[in-house]
Amino acid sequence: MRPMGIRTDRVLHATVGMYGDLQGIAGKTLQEIEGLERAGDAGP
User: Fold this and answer.
1) Closest CA relative to residue 36, chosen from 25, 23, 24
2) Are the C-beta atoms of 32 and 8 separated by less than 8 Å?
3) Contact at 8 Å (CB) between 22 and 30?
4) What residues have CB less than 8 Å from 36, skipping those under 6 apart?
């Protein structure tokens, strides 16, 4: 079983990726989610 922190990081990374995909589709009409913007800047 993987440590909780690693699983949480993977979920966060996947969520940030999905949010980025949605931004590519919806453009600026998609409301910013502040926590995801910062998490995406941190990198994998």
Assistant:
1) 23
2) no
3) yes
4) 15, 16, 19
Q: Does the pTM of the predicted model rise above 0.70?
A: no
Q: How high is the pLDDT of residue 41?
A: 59
Closest CA to 10 of 32, 39, 37: 39
Query: What are the residue ranges in the chain where pLDDT is below 70?
Result: 1, 37-44
Which positions ≥6 away from 12 have C-beta within 8 Å?
39
As a whole number of angstroms, the distance between CA 44 and CA 29 comes to: 26
For residue 5, the 8-state DSSP code is H
